[in-house]
Structure formats: structure tokens, C-alpha cells
Amino acid sequence: MLDSPAPPAPSGGISPPTIAARLNRMPIIRVHVVAVVCIGLGLFFDTYDVFLSGTLSVVLKKEFHLGADTLKAVLASGFVGQFLGALLLGRIADRLGRRRAFLVNLAAYSIFTLIGGLSPNVTVLVLSRFLAGMGLGAELALADTYLSDLLPAKVRGRFIAVAYTLGLLGVPAAGFLARWLVPLSPFGVHGWRWMFFAGAVGAVLIWALRWALPESPRWLESVGRTAEADAITSGWEQMARDRGRPLPEPEPITVAPPHHVPVRILFSAGYARRTVMAWVMNVGSAFGYYGFGTIATLVLVAKGYSVVGSLTYLSLTYIGYPIGSVLSLFVIERVERKLLIATTATGMAVAGLLFGYAGSPAAVVGWGFAFTVVSNIYSNAFHIYLPEVYPTAIRATGAGAAYSVSRLTTAALPYILIPALSVGTGFVFVIVAIALAVLVVDVLLLGPPTTGRSLEATAPVRAAPATEPLPVEHR
């Protein structure tokens, strides 16, 4: 497949279509489906891990006799690691390739999550969570970037939403697994440790699957490796022809000449507005989306429910995560992404407030379920939208930097929201609602429209920045 000849250049002096144009006119074929499944399975363990510490927070507090400050450190450690990982691996993905960064991040996550499950004391637990977080930190940026690179423009949103629907099964999995394992000690090992082991083993299996993924042809073209990009794309085009799938004429798309773009372009006149929008959006997302997973168990305990009862109620509310993701499939290509983000963020603020002030188990489960359903329509739109605002050469860097802001904010949430519990469970979600209101204004005012457009149209290359020359082997 990879050795298929490049198509001949058209006659008349017209330049052949770019790799990006050829990818956009592709029908969905097996390679797209495999990529969506492999990325979705990796996202499963990202969401599983993000909600793991929050789900087990009360159990870990009892196991290690944690004070309030130490509990905050346990909850924050993984997100601090993810902050650094998103910065470093996002840049590696733009410099060395999407596939290589994928393999590094899951390997690190698996090793240190296993160590976390074996932790003899809280120091080892905090350190292992930090290092596992570094590995997992770039997962969302890499997943969004890779799928955006591969998928045709008109179905990009829907298929990324499918990957996240698969990935978000990790949230109820964490909830129900905790509900089942926490009271048990299989083979004499505490149930909470088995939850860490499950994450580590699962990540190894996904790492093996991702080994077979191809490099992004868009990225290869962006760094001057056009022969490799053409070989991969030609193979896919032949695969479509062999299955009788028509290939329409590619639309003309102009791409930037190959070069390494410095990080400072994120703050240049052409992209500063988008970077501000992306960073503010990620701060608000941390409060709204991850704030719920981080603090919900403690909120329910503060309301007077038992640990097992709290885990049961949260397990039921977590079912809303994959359901919301499925519902997003019906609107993600029909509603402009920035409007969908603003609408669902407003819904999250309302449902969160009602959850915080809920006074009965039925109300807790009902409003918690409503929150998780709406939040995952939001989440899918958010994850599709973020990489669309940056061009290929800095897509992973830009998305990774924005996600790192989210992770740093999430690391700070225990230090903000846990003290807020002393004022009242409702007050916690007042803070969340304010953050989401800022997010809505930010996206509506600063965000560009992207739905149904090619990546080269949503994120055109701006004024030429000072660039670094490509290494000889990339020219």
C-alpha cells in the first residue's frame, strides 16, 4: 500500500493537488475507522484516569490517613504532570511526528500507573500520579490533532465525536469499577489498587494497537516529507478505488512551505486572539467539566451520604457521559461549533447549580445525569474545535499548550473548590457557573467559525514568522 506510485502531475503547468486537498476529498475507508477506534480506546484510559483520583478521593483519604492539604496534593499531582506532558509532548508531535508522541505518552502512563497501584505510602502515590500524568497529558491534544489531520473536512466532527463516545465509556467504567472493587480485596490486595492495575494493563494493550497507526500525511507534508506523505495518501486513494468509492476532484488548497514554526507564533498578531480564546476556554472547561469529576464525591459526602452511597449515585450520573457523547453525533455537523460550545456550557452551569443545591438522592442523580449529558455534548464540540483553530505546523503545539492550561487549572481546583465546601455545596457550583459564563463570552466574541470547513480554511497561515530551517533529511 505504501509503495503505490504518486499520481502524475496534471498537464498545462498546473500544480498537482496538495496532500491536504486529497485527504479532504477521501471517502471514509478502513484506515479512518481503525484510527478512530484506536484513538477512542486511548481516550477511554484518559477519561478513566482523570476521574480515577476524584472517584477514589474518599477511599484514599481513609487508606493513607490524609489531611486536607495532603488530599489536595494527591488530587492535584496527576494534573500538574499532565500540564507538563501536554506542553512537552504537544511540541514533540509537531517536531518529530504524531505517531512517535503517541507511543511515548501511553508507555509512560502505563508504567507509572502500575507503580501508583503498588504505592506503599502517599509520597510514592503522589509522585507516580505526577509521572503518569506527564505521560497522559498530551493524549487529548494528540488525539484531536491526529484525527483532525486524517479525517475529511465534512465528517471530521462526527468521527472525532465517535472516538470520544468510545473514550467516555471510561468515566462510568471508573465509577462502577470503584463501586464494585472498593469494598473488596481480591487476592488480598485492596480494591482501589486493582483500579490502577486495570488502567496500566489496558494502556499497554492500546499502545500495541497504536504501533500499527500510520504517520499523519498532513504532518509529513508540513515538514517537507512529501514523498512519504504522497505514498501513504496514494495507498489510501487506491484502497478507495478498489472498493468502488468515487474520488471527486480535490478542491484547491494552499499549504505553507515546509518549515518548523517557533512556539512564539502562538502569540503573534495572527494567532494571539485565538490563543487567548483557547486558553480562557480551557480554564472554563477545567472548572465545568473536570471540576465535577474532581469534587462531586466530596460534595455528596458533605451532603451526608455514605462513601458507598456517594459512589453509587455518581456511577448512575456518570452514565450520562457516553449518552451525551452519542447525542452529540446528531448535532455536531449541523450547528456551528462555537455556538454549540456556548449553548452547552450554559446548560452545564444551570445543571451544576441544581446538582449542588439538590436535597434528595433522586434530585442528585437526576441533575447529575443532566450535567453529564450536556457536558459531553459540550466536550465533543470543544475537542473538535480546539485543533481546528491552528494550522498543521503548530496544531499539536497550540492544542497542547491550551490543554496544559486546562490541566494546571484542574490541579488548582482542589485548592479552590474544597475550601468552598465549607461555605456550602451549592457555593461550589456557583464558582463553576461563573467560570462557565466567562467561557461563553470568550468563545462567542473571539472564536472563529469552523464547522464543515477544511483545516486550511479554518486556520490559514498568517503573516510569515521567523522560522527555523528544516533539517537536511526533511527537505
Please give a structural write-up.
This protein is mainly α and 475 residues long. It has helices spanning 19-24, 30-63, 68-96, 98-117, 122-136, 139-150, 156-167, 170-181, 191-210, 217-222, 226-242, 272-302, 307-318, 320-328, 337-356, 361-388, 395-420, 425-446, 455-458. The model is unreliable at 1-14 and 463-475 (pLDDT under 50).
Question: What's the oligomerization state?
Answer: single chain
The number of E-state strands comes to: 0
Distance between the termini: 23 Å
Q: Quick check: average pLDDT?
A: 84
Radius of gyration: 22 Å
- Number of helices, counting only DSSP H or I runs of 4 residues or more: 19
Element-level helix/strand string: HHHHHHHHHHHHHHHHHHH
Q: Which descriptor suits the 3D outline?
A: globular
Largest sheet: none
Structural class: mainly alpha
Q: Would you identify the regions where 5 or more consecutive residues have pLDDT less than 50?
A: 1-14, 463-475
Helix content: over 70%
Amount of beta strand: under 5%
Helix-strand layout with pairing:
Elements: H1 19-24, H2 30-63, H3 68-96, H4 98-117, H5 122-136, H6 139-150, H7 156-167, H8 170-181, H9 191-210, H10 217-222, H11 226-242, H12 272-302, H13 307-318, H14 320-328, H15 337-356, H16 361-388, H17 395-420, H18 425-446, H19 455-458
Helix pairs in contact: 2-3, 2-6, 2-7, 2-8, 2-9, 2-12, 3-4, 3-5, 3-6, 3-17, 4-5, 4-6, 4-9, 6-16, 6-17, 7-14, 7-16, 8-9, 8-13, 12-13, 12-15, 12-16, 12-17, 12-18, 13-16, 14-16, 15-16, 15-18
